[in-house]
Predict the structure.
Amino acid sequence: MSEILQISKVSKIYKNKFQALDNLTLSINEGEIFALLGPNGAGKSTLINTICGILNFDNGDITVNNFDIKKQYREARSLIGIVPQELNLEAFETVWNNVNYSRGLYGKPSNHEYIEKLLKELSLWEKKDNKLRELSGGMKRRVLIAKALSHEPKILFLDEPTASVDVELRKDMWEVVKRLKKNGVTIILTTHYIEEAEEIADRVGIINNGKIILVDEKENLIKKLGQKILKIELVNSIKEIPTDLKNFNLELNQEKNSLTYIYDTKGKNTGITSLLSEIKNLGIQLKDISTEQSSLESIFLNLVKESENELDRG
Amino acid sequence: MNWIGVKSIYLHEMDRMRRTLFQSLISPFISTSLYFVVFGSAIGSRITEIEGISYGSFIVPGMIMLTILTQSISNASFGIFFPKFTNTVYELLAAPLSSIEIILGFVGAAATKSLIIGTIIICTAGLFVDLHIEHPFIMMFFLILTSVTFALFGFLIGIWADNFEKLQLIPILIITPLVFLGGSFYSINMLPEFWQKISLLNPVLYLVSGFRWSFYEIADVSIITSLITILFFLFSCVLIISYTFAKGYKIKN
C-alpha cells in the first residue's frame, strides 16, 4: 500500500512556549482508516490543523501525495478535506449554499449533480434549503462532512467526529466513514472513544506530549500489547479467595461465584496451568471458563502512563 | 491563481449584503437626507456659498467620502472578523488559496458594497442639490481607490481585532474624527492659520480635497498630492496585510 501522507520530524511550539508537536514522524497509507488516540492536549488537533495548513509549524516536512504542504500548498490542500471538532457554521446560510461555497473555495467549478449525490448520501437532501441554525447537532456534523467532501478530496481528516453526538448517530457516522473508505478516501480521525477506533480503524496511532508513542495495525496492537482476562465461574459460591490463591491476584465478584484472573499474553508463563491446578487441589468445582481480549482502552492507558513515567524519569 | 475561490468569497460576502438589502440601501439614503436637512438647510442658510459653490453642493463629496470610508472599513473588518469569531475561518486557511486571493475576495466585496452605497448617496444628493461633476472619470477613480484602500485597512482591523470592541475602536476613535476634521463639511481656508497647518497632517483631508476637485475643481491641496497620498496609503495597507498573512499573525496561532 502506498503512503499518501508523510510527516517527518515536525515540531510546533505555540507562542506561550507550549510544545504541541515534538519531532513527530508518521506515515499514512492510502485508503486506510487511521485512528489517532491521545489524552486531552496530546497534540491531536494541532497535528491535524498543521497538516491542513490552519496552523504554521516550526520544523520538519509534511507531504501529501508527494506534494510539500508549504511549497506546493495548492496541490497538497486540494487533496485534503477537514471536519473540525467544533460545530462551527454560519448560522444564516442554507445547507446548499454553504456546501457549494466550500467547493468553490477549493477552485472547483459548480457540480450540482455531485453535491446532490453527496447530500443524499449524508441524509441531508431534505434539509438542503434549511438555514444552518435550524439544524440539530447531528445534522450540523453531517453538513461539516459534506463541506469537507464537497471538493472530492482523497484524504479526510475527522477531528473528534462523534464528540457530543448520541450513540445512534455515532454508529450512523461509523457507517458513513466505512462507506467513504469503500469509495477510496483515506480517513484520519482523532477520537476520545476507544470503541470508535476498535470499531472502524485499520491502524491506530497513540500520541502523547506531541510525540507518537506507537503506531500499529489495530489487531496487532491488541494482540501484541494486550492483557487477557480469564473468567472462572464456580458451581458453588465461596466466602473469600482461599489463601493458596492469594498470589494470583484474583478478584471475586459480588455474588461470590466468579473469579477473574488477568494475565499477560506476552509473558512466557501465563500462570493459567498453576492456577487451575491449585483450584483443583482445593476441590473447587468449576462451572465455566472463558477468556476476554483486553480492550484498546487498557492498552492506551498503559502506554500513556508509561510515556508519562518515562518523561518524569527523563 | 484560484479565481473560482476568489469568486466564491466575493459572492459569499455579497450575499451577506443581499440578506440585509433593505437595511443596506435604505440606511445611506436616510443618513444622506438627514445630512442635507441638518447641514444643507440649517447651516446652509447661514453659509450660502464656499468658493463659489452652494454649501449644499459643497458638502456632497465630503459626505460621500465619510460614508465610503466608514462603510469600506466596517464591511471589510466585519467580513474577516466574522469567520474568526464563528471559527469558520479554518476553511479559508485550509483551502488552496493564497493570501492575495483571500484579500481579493473580501476586499473586493467590501469595496463593491461601498461603491453601491456611494452611488446611492450621489443619487440621493441629486434630489436635494443641483449636482454637476466636472471630471467624472477622476471622480470614479478616487471613489474606487478610496473604497479599495479603506477596505484593505478595514481588513487589517478585522485581522487585528479579537473582540467586537476592538472592531469598533479604530473607526470610532480615529477614522470618524479624521473625516469630520478633514474638511468634509468645510474648507480649511475657513480655519485660522494654525489650524490650517494642523489640518494638513490629516491624511483624510487629501482624499476629501482630491475628491471635491473632481466635482467642482476646487481643492484645499493639489490633486497630485491627493493622488500620491491615497496611493501611498494603498501600498502601505497591501504591504502590512501581506506581511501579516505571511507570518500568520492572529490567524494561524
In short: The first strand of chain A starts at residue 3 and ends at 13. The interface with chain B takes residues 14-15, 49, 52-56, 73-78, 80, 82, 84, 86, 88-93, 97, 101-102, 104-109, 147 of chain A (CB under 8 Å). The CA atoms of residues 66 and 127 of chain A lie 38 Å apart.
